[in-house]
Write a structure and sequence with these properties.
Length: 273
């Protein structure tokens, strides 16, 4: 190849390199994805929030009023449901409730008779009705108790009694009927003003009850059985009342049968170890 031809080839190659370098940005840019504007809706069809366009003060105030009204309605509905639930569970105190406790041992019937204007001759009939109510709830309460097997595996005695509103309502209804038959409707209603169901048998079936058997010092010395308990709302799990105390006191409020059941289970677990 002559020198002239060699010079021509070099010139052509240099020209090609220059052209490549000039066109490279365009090639590179062509490989990058481009955002298509063809599918974007017309500006007039886009919401103001997307466009970032301001709205009038009147419109802003109207929207704020709507939000406040919705929030207030939701709050009132929640408060109404809570008030209804409180009345159902007995959290709301009846302003006409009597000061005496009709079911409280000897003192209850004594104070009830005086408050209602009945005589001591009416005491046996009143005590019989109270005893019938207690016996019915005592048996049903212990029958519903479910052992916590996981706790039992660790040597603990824990029972749960699920709520049973229907059973409690039926027992109260029968109690009302007995009082009415014995003393008349007016006297029966006065007596029932001293009936405080939330204090007994898990609110007479309206609440779940958890019980754990424990031990503690006795007032007279030594060790005695104690019950740690918790009443809770069956719908929300919210605790209504809880505490601990001697097994005898717990038995008076929730029945002797359930306490005997717990003590028997404790003896069984102790014997198996």
């Amino acid at each position: 190849m002559s020198n002239a031809n060699k010079l021509l080839v070099v010139a052509i190659l240099q020209f090609g390199v220059i052209v490549f370098l000039l066109l490279r940005p365009a090639v590179t840019g062509a490989t990058q994805p481009q955002v298509s504007q063809a599918r974007m809706p017309p500006k007039s069809m886009r919401p103001a929030e997307v466009l970032g366009e301001p709205i009038s003060e009147a419109e802003a105030e109207r929207l704020a009023d709507e939000v406040r009204e919705k929030n207030m309605l939701a709050y009132r509905a929640q408060q109404a449901r809570r008030a209804q639930r409180d009345r159902y569970l007995g959290r709301s105190r009846d302003p006409e409730a009597a000061r005496f406790d009709l079911l409280w041992a000897e003192a209850g019937p004594t104070e009830a008779l005086k408050a209602v204007g009945l005589s001591d001759n009416d005491r046996p009939a009143l005590e019989k009705s109270i005893r019938n109510l207690r016996d019915k709830m005592d048996t049903a309460f212990a029958a519903r108790a479910v052992l916590d097997e996981e706790a039992a595996a660790k040597g603990k005695v824990v029972y749960r009694v699920p709520a049973d509103d229907a059973a409690g309502t039926a027992a109260i209804s029968q109690f009302r009927d007995e009082l009415t038959a014995q003393f008349g409707k007016e006297a029966a209603e006065k007596l029932l003003k001293g009936f405080h169901p939330t204090r007994y048998f898990g609110g007479f079936g309206r609440m779940d009850l958890r019980m754990e058997l424990s031990e503690g010092p006795a007032a007279t010395g030594g060790i005695t059985a104690k019950i740690i308990y918790q009443n809770s709302d069956p719908e929300t799990g919210e605790e209504f009342r809880g505490g601990s105390g001697p097994a005898e006191s717990f038995a008076f409020a929730n029945g002797k049968a359930i306490v005997d059941k717990m003590l028997a289970k404790k003896a069984e677990l102790s014997g198996s170890r």
